[in-house]
Amino acid sequence: MMSKLRSGLAGLIRHLMCLITGLYLLAVQGYAQEKVNVSGKVLDEKGAAIIGATIIVKGSKGNGASTDESGRFTLPGLVPDAVLVVSYLGYQTREIPLKGRKSLSISLVEDSRLLEDVVIIGYGTQKKGDVTSSVASVRPENFAQGAIKDVGQLIQGKVAGLAVSNPSGDPTSTTQFRLRGTNTIGGANTAPLVLIDGVPGSINTVAPEDVESVDVLKDGSAAAIYGTRGTNGVIFVTTKKSKGGETNQVDYNGYMSTSRILKKPDLLNATEFAALYPNEDHGASTEWLDEIMRTPFTQVHNLSLRGGASSTNYIVNLNSNSSEGIMLKSANETFQGRTEVTHKMFDDKLQVKVGFLGKKNKFESTANSGSFSGYTYRQALLRNPTDPVKNADGSWYENLSKFEYENPVARLEESYGDVKNTEVRFNGGLTFNPVRDLTLSGVMSYVEQKRNHGYSETLNHASARRDGFAGWSSVGASARSESLVELTALYNKQINRHKMSFLGGYSYNGVDFEDMYFSNFGFQDDQFGGWHNIGIGSALKEGKADANSHKWTTNLIGFFGRATYSFDDRYLLMASLRYEGASQLWGTDNEWGAFPAVSLGWRITREPFMKDQNVLDDLKLRIGYGVTGSQPVNGFLGVAMLKYDKFAYVNGKWVQTIVPASNPNPDLKWEEKKETNIGLDFSLLKNRLSGSIDAYNRNVDGLLYEYSVPVPPNLYNKTWANGGTMQNRGIEVLLSGVPVTAKNFDWHTNVTFSTNSNKLKSLDGSVFKTQFDYFNTGWLAEPVKTESHRVQAGERIGNFWGFKVVDIDENGKWIYEGADGTRIAYNDFSRAPEEKQIIGNGLPKWYAGWNNNFRYKNFDLAITMRGAFGFQIINEARMYYENAKNSRMENRLKSVNDPVFGKTTLSKDIDPEFNSYYVEDGDYWKVDNILLGYTFNKLGKHIKSLRLYTSVLNALVITGYKGVDPEVNAEALNPGYDNRDQYPSIRSFTFGAGIKF
Amino acid sequence: MKSKIVYIFITVITLVLAACTKLKDDSYGQVISEKYNPKTEQEVSYLVNAAYVPWRETMLLWNGVVRAQELCADQDVLPARPNGWVDGGIYKRWHLHTWTTDDDSALQPWVRTYTGINTCNRLLSQIEEGIIIVNGDIKEGLVSELKVLRASYYYILVDLYGNVPIVTDFKDVSLPKQSARKEVFDFVVSEISQNIDKLSETARGYYYGRINKWGAYTLLAKMYLNAEVWTGTPRWTDCITACDKVIDFAGKTGEYALESNQKDVFRTANENSKEIIFALPFDEIYVTDWNAFDFHLYTLASESQQTYNFTNTPWGGVCVIPQFIGSFDPEDIRLKENFISGQQYKASGEILTRADNGKPFAYLKDVPSIDKSDITDGYRWGKFEYATGITNRLSNDWPMFRYADILMMKAEALLRSGQPGAGALISQVRQRAFKNNPGKATVTDDQLKGGSVYDYGRRDENRSTQEGGGDITYGRLLDELGWEFTQEGRRRQDMIRFGVFSSKSWFSHDATKNRNRDLYPIPNSARLTNSNLQQNPGY
Fold it and tell me: Per the database record, which ranges form the RagB/SusD domain (chain B) (predicted)?
């Protein structure tokens, strides 16, 4: 919030730049005026001295002073017509022309702008001071800078309670979001709703460079106006706008960046491998990871043109992003253009807005319909380092009869293809004010997303040489269109100290999806075939390849209303109701659901009894309750459906059988999340310190899940039903402060802290009954082959479920602790499912972030840090690559030679298994983003400002975790699982420039 | 102007609201049941044949009945391999008979058979209600077929779990009640007996892969053969009668007969084999479950891909217990034809070599233990032909019931009921196995009454004991069943009938002396969804 003020100040200065410069030039060039010494005092409204206020002589470089303990200042040698700019944090900046005076008494008025700041809430905005629910805003000055992947990374660690993680270094991946914990086990809505200027989109819909601000609705009372989609919170992404009457402005931002693997897995080299496995020494020395990695180069350019007159404004934003990954042939290229025109007419009563976004994305594909295959990375990790890359004759060195063993370089070089995404978004809006206080608006949008992918493996690829899939190829396409119509009417009225507003609206959201896919093999050569000529392979003709297509449509219809009322800006009330129907529930008895919310606010500082205190600037207590929901993922679960099933052999022919598609469950209904939020907003010491504290309690009722049921009487042993209840509780704290503010040096800091405690209270619901109080989920692939997580009533989501080892015997064999707590020797341990127990949990119990912005003269330095604590990680790479038995004779981590529990190395008789030894504490603290910039103001005639900066992302990780990155997947029901095939995280280094014309 | 805009605005809102409160109900790729009205015989067959699909899955999908019958028995073992095959110890527990109520081994046969039963119940109910319209003349036969098919799923359940719920009414949505093993047995026998006369007598054609009268008699014979174990009361005469029905029909029509080469029953294109009475048809193209029928992948080592040019790399796997191989007469053709052993060659004829060290690749008889084995240790399953160039799935049909079984069931019933003739029947089956030395084909009734030549005893690198098989009553007949029906997913049932399942040791398995392990436990997850289910004794 402090930074907002700072930016406001900067804006003001920028606007006056010409004038100032002109005056200054006039002053120095013009007449040799008589200099005067000026002294004065700076006071607040109540006449108290303001200490540390800054007084700058307008147009001068560095000529200024600060007030002392009595609020006094002196400035020597001023020209009599100088203008003083007096500022102090939390107060409105004033400009005082000297007009020849030598002694001044300047009073500053408290700046209530912070509280007047407008915050986006659903279908409208509210003054921050009036907000009664938990809403967080992140402004550009707090955005992370550098090689930012998407909007998620901009706000990572900046919103308490919003866990943003970035577990993959793949340039085509996006960040992951979770707000206030895991709130569903099988509902459709798992992530926050992302609205791009009010229209549903995703976190990578717009380029991060094109974002003006991000607002997050956290609690249910705020999000309930969005009904079901808002159940995991709402993230508003506001793109850059042109402002009324602004002079034309052109901004260029660009950067170049490179990156490296965050932490390279420490594998045996050829010598070490040969020492351990002398029979497997094939003579060469290859660092396989280096063979598939590179030093990537990324460049991003963003150009925005803004301008207009008082009635018409436009912005055009062009963005080009060409990112390379650290792995060969992994890259991502996006070009997008966005334009928005607003026009006011009929005496400004009608505002028309038309927006358009076009986006073209393309990336190289060395995996079927994807970017980079994790299997290739795996092969680089496990491949024998004494294998050469190529034979003497230049052909690939393979050993294809070895199980699951392929040359990773060959995998990359012998495959080709690309994925192309295009997206077009149209949106239009009309806002009409027929009479004072009434606003009618309509928003319409249409989004079309298309994806085309093609992938081929050559005849020299392992698939052809080993499996006979000559030239295996696939080609596919999908198209998704989404339309949105939202109509609202808003009536605002203020009668004396009574302020009220009423909103009514209708929303229609429809999605249409279709895709198709073909695969084929049996190509005669690499020249004529491949994915661009999929039909000529033989396998489709023989019925051995795939051809499929799908289509589905859904819609979501909502009616909503909201009323707000406030008395004297002291007592605040907001109540809303959304009545919503989802096509996924068509045919059930509960197609429509009602989602109410109410919230109250009390601005304590406006009470008469607080009048005389001057510590607190503002103190507001908020309390809110809201119901949101989630529909099931699939439709038609309430009615009996028939599907084609497997083939049966009838009279010499294979015929497609027809069977019921699922157990119909007409009782299926919305999963409901009821959330209570209590919050306190405060600002004190003239806004030097401000913040908010929120406590929430979320109870999710009627959890949607595919529950186990008996067969018979059911058709299938799983039924989608509304089962048990889950609770999420937590506290979120945001503290913003300005420890230092002086003429040349500012330090703005903010701290976020959040906790989350999750509990699945029951799987047995009021509608659906089950004896099951658990189910297992997550999967560790062969040779371990077991489920990794258990979801159990009475426990947290994210529990790891495996064997517990407590020690190792002298032979290097595990000593277990049985489910009853006794020590069991390796050979006596049954390894039965019953011996498993909870050996960790992958969901962090608390998150913290600490963001700092420093300014020294024209330098700016930002250091953002964040961390997650109280969770564990399943280090799958260690589970596999530290196993000493290594029966497949693959490469190992160096730690294979380390003694286990400090005693002895693991026995060579022990098979890889999932046990607690491979579960590690994941606690980490990251110095996430270090940014150093320098701004040149007014360079030459045409450049308003130039800023150069350099930054590091993922700069430093403090953790005890032994894997590549402790920031692992925290989504779904198997959080904390560090997949050994995960594209490794990166550290990136960026040099960038921003120019304003 | 102003009012006009308001007017347009309101009109637009009204129209939109009226038109746009309808939730989408367009389904693609699926059909709302109410909108589908099958009428033609062909359409009906799409619905009805769904009831057969669970049979092939019951037997052969991952951790199906074939494994439930073989991996716990004395012929096959799935030891830890360099490629893996530890899988949380499930295969070891199978071998040691220490499976738990949560093990997949107990769960999968339960889930799949009840899927079949449920499908039969649903179809019977739909036919009765006229939702599926079947013409009067074929209706009776179809209903009978579905009832016997349903009984055939209970045959698996009564064997593996014993005490299971009998569910026949699709409309009854209450939690099923458990029945005792004898009640289940009686239900199966009575269902077959009541419906058998309405079943088709057609051997193949439309009835290939379906339950006809002869399949039903074979099933009935199976029930009677095991009646003593399952109910406490032997039914040898009934078993002989049921077998004779099939033998008479075969004799009269020639529709069923022994193949002159046993191998021909297990060829890729075996659908015309006269030996097969009830087949579960497979096809690599049409049966699309990944593990539908994957013996080749789960027995052979990766290197063997080059022998057969499979489109998938095998990850084997299961191998034959050396003691079982040791029980064979070296001249028995089945020893050579039913197992893959010795030096392997590439499809081109070149010598196959090991991927790790380049040495010649040969499958060796010995296996160190359940916990340890090299890629080449143990002879591999080779009874079913592995066609060159096939995918991860075999196209060979699964001979669920075959004519040799009829002869041998009858032989066993004769022998156990003290009647002569068993030797002649067994010799008939043995003839094709000893073509090179026909004298050895003959076996007498007395020989069959003698002990087993299987050298029972714990026999792995950790421990070796000598138990032998000489003390087994009708042990030689048990050997004959083993030699003829290896890899056919039934060994456990035979061993239990001969009393050796819990009394003998083999390979890494020590005799449990625990008859409770003759039954699998009711799966824990089934009990969690149905509180009426009591666990089997000893679990």
Answer: 274-539
- Taking the CA of residue B292 and the nearest CA in chain A, the distance in Å comes to 11
For residue A641, what are the β-bridge partners? B32
Is B17 within a domain?
A: yes
ipTM of the complex: 0.89
pLDDT at B46 exceeding the cut of 60: yes
Q: Do A85 and A58 touch, CB atoms closer than 8 A?
A: yes
Q: From the list B24, B111, B306, which residue is nearest A553 (CB)?
A: B24
How much is the pLDDT for B1?
A: 54
Residue A100: asked if its preceding bond is cis (omega within 30°), the reply is no
- For residues A44 and B376, which has the higher predicted lDDT (pLDDT)? B376
Q: Residue A75 sits in a domain of what CATH number?
A: 2.60.40.1120
Whether B84 has a pLDDT exceeding 90, the answer reads: no
Q: What is the structure's pLDDT at B18? A: 63
- Residue with structure tokens 């989630």? A630
Supply the range of the domain harboring residue B15: 2-34
* pLDDT over 60 at B366, yes or no: yes
Contact A771 B531 (CB under 8 A): yes
Alpha-carbon distance values, B299 to A148, A317, A573, A903, A926 (Å): 50, 61, 71, 38, 49
Domain that holds residue A19: 2-111
Q: Is the pLDDT of residue B9 over 80?
A: no
Q: Could you give the number of structural domains in chain B?
A: 1
pLDDT for position B26: 86
Q: Are A332 and A259 in contact (CB under 8 A)?
A: no
Q: Record the pTM.
A: 0.85
Q: Is residue B477 part of a domain?
A: no
Closest Cβ–Cβ partner in B2, B31, B529 for A771: B529
pLDDT in tens, B282-328: 999 999 898 999 999 999 999 999 999 999 899 888 999 999 999 99
Residue of B nearest to A546 (CA): B285
B375 burial via Cβ count (<10 Å: 0-12, 13-18, 19+)? buried
Predicted local distance difference test score (pLDDT) of residue A12: 39
Q: Is B32 on the interface with A (CB under 8 A)?
A: yes
Q: A661 contacts in B (CB within 8 Å)?
A: 30
Number of structural domains in chain A: 1
Contact state of B49 with A651 under an 8 Å Cβ cutoff: no
Tell me which residue in A401, A403, A644 faces B83 most closely, judged by beta carbons: A403
Identify the CA nearest to A994 among candidates A938, A937, A930, A945. A945
**Residues in chain A closer than 8 A to B312 (CB atoms):** 467
In 3D space, the residue among A762, A736, A630, A683 whose CA is nearest the CA of residue A220 turns out to be A630
In this prediction, the residues of chain A whose per-residue pLDDT falls under 50 are 1-32, 113
Q: Chain B residue closest to A908 (CA)?
A: B372
> Is B30 part of any domain?
yes
Is residue B357 a part of any domain in this protein? no
Q: Are A937 and A888 in contact (CB under 8 A)?
A: no
Determine, for residues A642 and B391 on separate chains, whether the beta-carbon distance falls below 8 Å. Answer: no
Task: Kindly state whether residue A53 falls inside one of the protein's structural domains.
Answer: yes
Which of A349, A637, A711, A907 to mutate against chain B (most B CBs within 10 Å)?
A711
In-domain check, residue A886: no
Distance (Å) from the alpha carbon of B136 to chain A's nearest alpha carbon: 21
In angstroms, the CA B103 to CA B462 distance is 26
- Give the minimum alpha-carbon distance from B339 to chain A in angstroms, rounded to a whole number: 22
> Whole-angstrom Cα distance, residue A742 to residue A73?
14
Q: Is B103 on the interface with A (CB under 8 A)?
A: yes
CB B32 to CB A405 under 8 A?
Answer: no
Name the minimum distance, in Å, from the CA of B93 to any CA of chain A: 8
Give the pLDDT of residue A116: 59
Q: How confident is the model at residue B16 (pLDDT cuts 50, 70, 90)?
A: low
**What pLDDT digit, counting tens, does each position of B182-210 carry?**
999 999 999 999 999 999 999 988 899 99
